Amino acid sequence: MNNQYEVLSPWAEVDPIPLKGITPRLTDINGKKIGMFCNSKAASKPTLAIVARKLKERFPTTELSWYAATETFTTLQMVGNDKDRFITWVKSVDAVIGAIGD
């Protein structure tokens, strides 16, 4: 038997510009305002509550700002009815910690 297979690469052509984060990582969160983003799943808020408690124990001067998603899917915060509220919130914090409550 002379079976032959063509093998294709799953990789597409990529942009030669290296990826980078939206903003630089914080070197210290003391005195910073940290956003706590809860998606619409039930366990996200209790999970972030524990993270928030630990952050305040370790970094007492850190301020926390909470945002709870109202849409079923987290991505809708950027395009849904709450887009303006979400963008205003994001601009008001120095960094964001998010939790998905699965």
List the defining traits of the structure above:
24% helix, 102 residues
Question: Which helices and strands appear, and what pairs or packs with what?
Answer:
Blueprint: E1 33-38, H1 44-58, E2 63-68, H2 83-91, E3 95-99
Parallel strand pairs: 1-2, 1-3
Commentary on this structure:
The protein has a domain at 33-99. 24% of the residues lie in helices and 17% in strands. It has helices at residues 44-58, 83-91; strands spanning 33-38, 63-68, 95-99. It has a 3-stranded parallel beta sheet with strand order 2-1-3, sandwiched between helices. α1 (44-58) links the parallel β1 and β2 (63-68). The longest helix has 15 residues, at 44-58. The mean pLDDT is 85.
Question: Going across the major beta sheet, what is the strand order?
Answer: 2-1-3
The major pleated sheet works out as: 3 strands, parallel
The oligomeric state is single chain
> Shape from CA axes?
elongated
Helix residue percentage: 10-25%
Mean pLDDT: 85
Q: Which residues form runs of ≥5 with pLDDT under 50? A: none
The beta-strand count equals 3
Concise synopsis of the structure shown:
With 102 residues, the protein is an alpha/beta fold. 24% of the residues lie in helices and 17% in strands.
